[in-house]
Amino acid sequence: QVQLVESGGGLVQAGGSLRLSCTASGGTFSRGVMGWFRQAPGREREFVAAVSWSGRIDYAESVKGRFTISRDSAKNMVWLQMNSLKAEDKTVYYCAVDGVSLLGVIRTDRSAYDYWGQGTQVTVSS
Predict the structure, then answer these.
(1) Contact, 38 vs 94, CB < 8 A?
(2) CB atoms within 10 A of CB 39
(3) Which one, of 34, 18, 38, lies nearest residue 85 by Cα?
(4) Is residue 45 a contact partner of residue 112, using CB atoms and an 8 Å limit?
(5) Which of 18, 21, 32, 95 shows the smallest number of beta carbons within 10 Å?
């Protein structure tokens, strides 16, 4: 059974930094995409960033230049370094895995992702 476990959320002041971690277990994702989504109350879950097995990376426009995603495929781990946090970044962040991406293509639609973590809360105070 595949499980994704996130950690690293918390409270930070605007302009500060947090680093989210996600560990996947119960499966092999050597040809998959690992990424992060976020969802605010009453809103759709939105793509934040993802990295494919081929090293391809994609970011949402709203986080480009501030967030950095990285991955250790051997350990089935993915991280999201979040710098210059803003009030609008405050929400629940979810780790997600698209199990197979044959060409290493990153899809930003949540329906493309097969597995999800339970979410970790990020709170940014102004």
Answers:
(1) yes
(2) 15
(3) 18
(4) no
(5) 21
Cα Rg, the chain, nearest whole Å: 14
Arithmetic mean of pLDDT, 23-42? 93
Strand order of the β-sheet with 67-72 is: 3-7, 18-25, 77-82, 67-72
Q: Say if strands 10-13 and 120-125 run parallel, antiparallel, or are unpaired.
A: parallel
For residues 57 and 49, give the distance between their C-alpha atoms in angstroms, rounded to a whole number. 7
* Conformation bin of residue 99: beta by default, left when phi > 0, alpha when psi is -120 to 50: alpha
Cite the beta strand spans of the chain per DSSP E: 3-7, 10-13, 18-25, 33-39, 46-52, 57-59, 67-72, 77-82, 91-98, 115-116, 120-125
